[in-house]
Write a structure and sequence with these properties.
- This protein is an alpha+beta fold.
- It folds into three domains: about 100 residues, 2-Layer Sandwich (Dodecin subunit-like); about 170 residues, 3-Layer(aba) Sandwich (Rossmann fold); about 90 residues, FlgT, C-terminal domain (Thrombin, subunit H), CATH 2.40.10.
- It contains five helices and 18 strands.
- α1 packs across α2 and α3 packs across α5.
- It is globular and about 75 Å long.
- The N terminus is likely disordered.
- It holds the Pfam family FlgT_C.
Length: about 375
């Protein structure tokens, strides 16, 4: 939970904008330090989102604020000053108030507002024995669907429209080729491949003097994610995310991981928090990647390309077309060579996921072939 208060303070001829936010977190198992950190992180995240800044450094800022206990800390330029205003402890939760002087970073490239579409498959569970506790048989399917939902909720520029109904495990030599194939299947520019690692449950046996009490348990979570450029197969991003949470269910519970109630448990909320971190990370990584698609067909100088209104491509937009080829030098090193077709191509008609394109000057597309690349800068 977070509340936002916007404060404008005049400074000379300009105005500094301060954002004040409150965050709350439940105290679990008496762990006040974690609750305080979670409440502070939530407050700062909400302030950043409200100001239009990025959220990829929230944890770093939170840890710095709590560690130093100073009134003001410096950061990377988005947060000029950060203050811990107060914290109020209640019986089972804490409320933290922060105040931040935030300068939302301006657009660093023309592609920052273009929608970015991803394809993926069900994340592979490395050890399915971990799923026996709670009978989470469909967890890989449920997880991937929830990731798509969170992406739609948390950002307007990223989406996960295509989920292949199978799991994948790619070896390094074939990763680029597989990424390109999955991108073709989903007609997307980017590909996400993930593995779910430790999903085990750790149980503390109850005391012999209180054998009737349910044993305390916590459940772990880790995901290892790689993001590819689906057009050339290049790796853009790789990171591992881990967390853990209370697990109040006994080992014989039969849970439905596809249900909304599962994702509102403490464990589900902990996973969604890691999803949020991943979404913020890939939004930053792909922000300046130009909008790119493929030539689908050529006919009498008229081209059909795999970019349309869903990608915010409109009539009269200007596009560029290029071809790639692999070049091997005298040492056997392989390089990717880009050959750009001369001139600019304009959009004549834009449809949902495709557009009709012609050369701006000549009206003809000489030598352009299917599967060549088209780009909007």
């Amino acid at each position: 939970m977070a509340l936002i208060c916007l404060v404008l303070l005049p400074v000379g001829q300009t105005y500094a904008v301060w954002y004040e936010a409150k965050g709350q977190a439940v105290i679990q198992k008496g762990n006040k330090q974690k609750a305080r950190r979670d409440a502070t992180e939530e407050a700062l995240k909400q302030a950043l989102l409200f100001a239009g800044a990025s959220v990829n450094s929230v944890q770093q800022l939170t840890n710095g604020l709590l560690k130093s206990e100073s009134i003001t800390i410096s950061s990377t330029g988005e947060v000029e000053q950060l203050e811990l205003v107060d914290e109020v402890w209640h019986a089972d939760y804490v409320t933290v108030t922060v105040r931040a002087d935030i300068f939302a970073r301006g657009k660093t490239c023309s592609a920052s507002d273009y929608p970015k579409q991803f394809a993926t498959s069900y994340f592979m569970v490395e050890n399915r024995q971990h799923l026996l506790d709670g009978k989470l048989d469909n967890f890989e399917q449920a997880f991937t669907r929830e990731l798509a939902r969170q992406m739609a909720v948390q950002t307007s520029t990223l989406s996960l429209p295509f989920i292949a109904p199978y799991t994948t495990q790619w070896a390094a030599p074939t990763a680029a080729e597989n990424a390109r194939e999955l991108a073709r299947q989903g007609n997307t520019q980017f590909v996400i491949i993930g593995r779910l690692g430790d999903l085990s449950v750790h149980r503390e046996p109850s005391s012999a003097l209180a054998f009737w009490k349910q044993e305390d348990a916590s459940r772990y979570f880790s995901m290892d994610i790689t993001v590819f450029d689906g057009l050339n197969g290049g790796e853009l991003f790789h990171r591992t995310y881990t967390t853990q949470s209370d697990w109040p269910f006994d080992r014989f519970s039969d849970l439905d991981s596809l249900s909304a109630s599962f994702w509102h448990t403490d464990y589900g909320n902990a996973i969604k928090k890691e999803m949020g971190s991943f979404i913020a990370d890939i939004k930053e990584v792909t922000a300046c990647q130009p909008l790119t698609g493929r030539v689908l067909s050529t006919s009498n100088g008229n081209l059909t390309v795999s970019l349309g209104r869903d990608n915010e491509v409109m009539p009269n937009d200007e596009l560029y077309i290029y071809r790639t080829m692999e070049v091997i030098d005298s040492r056997g090193q392989r390089y990717l060579q880009y050959n750009v077709y001369p001139g600019v191509f304009t959009v004549e008609q834009a449809y949902g996921s495709t557009s009709s394109v012609r050369h701006k000057d000549t009206g003809f597309a000489i030598n352009v072939q299917e599967n060549d690349f088209v780009i909007k800068k």
